[in-house]
Write a structure and sequence with these properties.
Chain B: Keywords: Signal. The complex is a heterodimer of chains A (294) and B (437). Chain A has 294 residues and is mainly α. Chain A is built from twelve helices and no strands. Chain B has two domains: 155 residues, Periplasmic binding protein-like II (D-Maltodextrin-Binding Protein, domain 2, 3-Layer(aba) Sandwich); 213 residues, Periplasmic binding protein-like II (D-Maltodextrin-Binding Protein, domain 2, 3-Layer(aba) Sandwich). Chain B has a five-stranded mixed sheet with strand order 2-1-3-11-4, with helices on both faces. Classes of the chains: A mainly alpha (294), B alpha/beta (437). The interface between A and B is large, with 37 and 45 residues.
Amino acid sequence: MPVKSYKHIVSLLAFVAPAFIIYLLFLLIPTIGGMYYSFTDWNGLNRNYSFIGLGNFIEALREDPDFVHSLLFTLKYVLFMIVLQNIFALVLAVFIETKTRTKGFFRTIFFMPNMISTIISAFMWTFVFSQVLPQIAEKTAMSFLDQLWIGDPKVSFYSIIIVSLWNGVGYMMIIYLAALQGVPQSLKEAAVIDGASPFQTFRKVTLPMITHAVTICFFLTLNGAFKVFEVVYGLTGGGPGRSTQVITMNIYEEAFSNNFRYGYASAKSVILFVIILIFTFIQIGVMKRKEVEA
Amino acid sequence: MKKMSKGLLVTFLAATLLAGCGSNNGGNAGNAAGDNTSSGSGSASAKSVTLKMFIAQTRFKEQYDNYIAEFVKKEKADKNIDVSVQLEMPTADNASQILKTRLASNDAPDIFAIHAVNEIPSYYKAGYLEDLTSQPFVGKLLDSVKPSVTTTDGKVVALPLETLSWGYLYNKKIFTEQGLTPPTTLTEMKTVIGKLKAKNITPFVLSYKESWIPQLVLPLAVGGMMKTEDPEFVNKMNKDEGSFSEMKSAIFDVFDLINENGTAKATEVGGDDGAAAFAAGKGAMWLMGPWYAETILKSNPDLDFGVAPLPINDNPEATLINLSASTSLAVSPTSKNKEVALDFLNYVLDDQASNGLFQAMKFNPVSTVHTYESYPWITEATTYVKAGKSVQDPAIPQSVKDEVGKGLQAYYAGQMSQDDVLKALDKAWKSYNKVNK
């Protein structure tokens, strides 16, 4: 027996090694390096730098109002995205599932925006917001369309949400569609025979059966929304001023355009990493408990 | 047994994979070694040298290649050195990242291009720039250009290629039709604006979507003030003793005036859209430098426009053209072929050949050897410079410039007051001092 388990380990290692070594070289080591730099004041250019302990972390959370603002703005964005993206995706999935003949068509249509890269869709929408909508407003006298969609900080948050949803809903919808197809028809029929209304069937039968998909979608949305960058970069560039600056953008600005404080920017990234880690653990922990088996 | 052999086979494969990586490195090292020996011994008569250059201007590849070819010929004829040049041209977006990595890992190119005003101070401090003060080309530089490549302790560390002289752009056709001339004081500016508005012409094109555009008002205001009332401003700021509140009226008097008389929806108009609007005559003036000339002429080839200094108060002495340099060539102090590298730099300002290079790349003249005819708007800016109506771009740290762009955007959108903006600027400069002490 021991010989066999030894062989088992060797072959496991042999199969994992190529991927693991590349992962180690290009992801794990740089990540740990980044964490190390977060305790230094390296500026990306000097040969020598000093170790300053938790100084960067304290500065980020205590003395950097822009960072805290971007953190709160990102949290607001995450909240809106989790709720809206999942609701829209689920509703679309349920509606498309009821169609038998045109299912493929609608699925393709709603998934299509997801195939365009985020930054390009952001530029497309910039054009829509700044050129198309004002023109429509002029031609049709719908004056509410003629406003500063991306130039006014109060409105631009919703513009960002619109573009993110347009881009992201399709993917979640596909996951929900797959899950819906896995719900046994017999259970639904049994519920109908017992006199359940369509809404009751959905709530008491379908929804519990697709909780695993909900877990995945929440996880993906949460993770993606915290790391949002391209949409905001393409639409508003974080502006006007820093009013729509998200956390990744704040980090980017710190590292590559201000004083090149790589150490400080690394510290901010570590903070973001920890936040995402905590939120994801809580979310997975809570939702795993609610899942049921068919 | 079969399983065992399979396992072994896979391990072997993995090992070959790794060995493959390893042998690649070995191969590179071997090549590098080969290069060294060849440059060391070479043939008895001609010395051969490989010169590495790093210039992030892909659009001028042809011009550089031609010029380098001529240099190689000249070096062979004059000194009997066989020079082969490796010209690296990454895209401008990540060039400074690549360069920094190369410098930090002791793999510096012999000659590299950096941004004169933004990058020289930090690179010089880190010890990556060779002192070029004693080189012959320094004597040929125009006096108006030299300060932008000179460090605070008086050493010339780079050769400027691209220089800028700018204020704001104005539509000459509109100005002539209305019988106007570029104003020299803020009051005159108000008169000009009044006359334009009376004819239903929007005085200014506004384009504040990109934060570096509203930022432009800062170097102009600070430059004007430093030449007249506040010459020690930058030094004071560097010692944590000054404050931007000294600049409050210089910045905001003119900025408010421009905003009140500009086109709508400024926060949604970027640089290119602004250029199109200006080219279409939607505004008579645009707070922008002549670096947008190409874009403007692309959308309206017939547009006649000029460069004029922006008035910031009622002192005509403070209405000045801003002079600065951007792309500049520097030599690495660790270069093994320093002699050849310096020869190349001197050749860039060669008495005969230099004219052709600068003209081909459409750069402004930087040296006394440049005698070619430049664009009308550059000639116009140069007349101001010759009349002494110019100021060296004040050495404002890049982080402060970024901050002022964001601040003025927010100010325009009504989110920050004037004092908030100035406070944020003071803070940005203080943190710059802290980081770069």
